Amino acid sequence: MAHRPSTRNIPGQRRGLTAIDAITALIVILLVTQIWLLSATLDTFLAGHPETALPAAIVSGVLCAACLAMYGFVRRVDRDSRPDS
User: Fold this and answer.
1) Domains identified in the chain, total number
2) pLDDT 10s digits, 18-45
């Protein structure tokens, strides 16, 4: 049986995996922040302060757009770091 060299040692792949790990951590932080924002806004809205709903919805939309942009970046890095099959 022929010995195939490991593809995990390719520098481009390692850089790609490092970038993916970092962006994944940032996405998790943004999603946790978005969940916290939702719960805080719901709490103030139910307490009788409806003026907080619109600014929170805008910030939540910006956080969602940032997560989607980073997801697109992860897909591009993943595609570029894979060896040609």
Assistant:
1) 1
2) 888 899 999 999 999 999 999 999 999 9
DSSP string computed for the chain: -PPPPPGGG-HHHHHHHHHHHHHHHHHHHHHHHHHHHHHHHHHHHHTT-GGGHHHHHHHHHHHHHHHHHHHHHHHHHHHHHSPP-
User: Which domain, by its residues, includes 74?
Assistant: 13-81
pTM of the model: 0.73
Please report the sign of the dihedral spanned by the C-alpha atoms of residue 18, residue 21, residue 22, residue 24.
Answer: positive
Q: Domain for residue 53, yes or no?
A: yes
